[in-house]
């Protein structure tokens, strides 16, 4: 169900995004930071779903809050002549890798458990055959 | 299906929609913006551009200096050429004065020879006078306006005319103008007894000599060509 929603969202989003008017190149830097923050939130959300502690409010607040905060930080960095957006990117991308690792481990463990179970099952079958 | 789950599904779908919309918008913006345009460059790119331009400016101003130096050299050369041509013109002028192609002016003497009833002035008298004047340092001589040049000759035509330079036939009175040091000229001509004037007077010819300060001697009007000598 959620997977269908994601696919539909992606398709509609792509169409809308292509049809939106261009934004000024100056502001595209802010938008890029917001995108990275939002992606981080999405992967965080996926991880929490797998862990079973998904909370919609936390997800939404993280999604929009992080995006807005990172844009504000970038703006501040421009004003202070410090590349603060680098810090934001490091944090968000680092977290993305962490979350991806968690997701990866989850599925690999799930898959190996299945294999182990099947092996046990096979061995059990052999044992029963051997007894005959 | 639970109501909560539908909300979650719709919310997540919306969130993904917004995210992909923004991502594609960004893709489109980056694709369609001309990164090489000056307004869209990053600060460090602008810095390198500026330093490139500065280098170029330095190179070009170096070239400009070189070119300017060359130009001033050429101008100097032109100026010296002008000086040289001025010198040439001066020299030409002097040479023309010497050979008689220019009218000249200066102090000297004017000798007037007039026929008397007893004696006519002959070409020989004039030749002698010209010779005498040259000995005394005359720089330019003319007889009745005819400039004496390097190939001048003075001959009698019958008993009436004297011909000078092949074209001019002149009659008395003969006015001989000579530019030179008046003192030398005068003293050379008026030596006692053996001097030109005394000897001519003795022969019964009328010779008068006056010193003048501003004698003008006209230029030679004929051609000064050499056919065989070169």
Beta-strand percent range of chain B: 15-25%
Question: What is the subunit organization of this protein?
Answer: heterodimer
Strand order of the largest sheet of chain B: 3-2-7-1-8
Give the C-alpha Rg of chain A: 22 Å
**N-to-C CA distance of chain B:** 130 Å
Mean pLDDT of chain B: 86
The helix/strand series of chain B, from N terminus to C terminus, equals HHEHEEEEEEHHE
Write down the Rg of chain B. Answer: 49 Å
Quick one: overall form of chain B?
A: rod-shaped
Pairing-aware structural class of the strands and helices of chain A? mainly alpha
**CATH architectural label of the domain at 104-217 in chain B:** 2-Layer Sandwich
Name the CATH class of the domain at 104-217 in chain B: Alpha Beta
Give a short account of the largest sheet of chain A.
none
**Poorly predicted sequence stretches spanning 5 or more consecutive residues of chain A:** none
Supply the CATH superfamily name of the domain at 104-217 in chain B: Protein of unknown function DUF881
Shape of chain A, please? elongated
CATH domain topology of the domain at 104-217 in chain B: Alpha-Beta Plaits
Summarize the structure.
By secondary structure, chain A is mainly alpha-helical.
Notable characteristics:
heterodimer; A: 132 residues; mainly alpha; 4 helices; 89% helix; B: 230 residues; alpha+beta; Alpha-Beta Plaits; five-stranded antiparallel β-sheet; 5 helices; 8 strands; 50% helix; 20% strand; rod-shaped
Any overview of this molecule?
The complex is a heterodimer of chains A (about 130) and B (about 230). Chain A is mainly alpha-helical. Chain A has four helices and no strands. In chain A, about 90% of the residues lie in helices and about 0% in strands. Among the domains of chain B are: about 5-30; about 105-215, Alpha-Beta Plaits (2-Layer Sandwich), CATH 3.30.70.1880. Chain B has helices at about 5-30, 45-100, 125-135, 180-190, 195-205; strands at about 105-115, 140-145, 145, 155, 160-165, 170, 175-180, 205-215. In chain B, the strands form two sheets. A five-stranded antiparallel β-sheet of chain B has the order 3-2-7-1-8. The interface of A and B includes residues 6, 14, 17 and 32 of A.
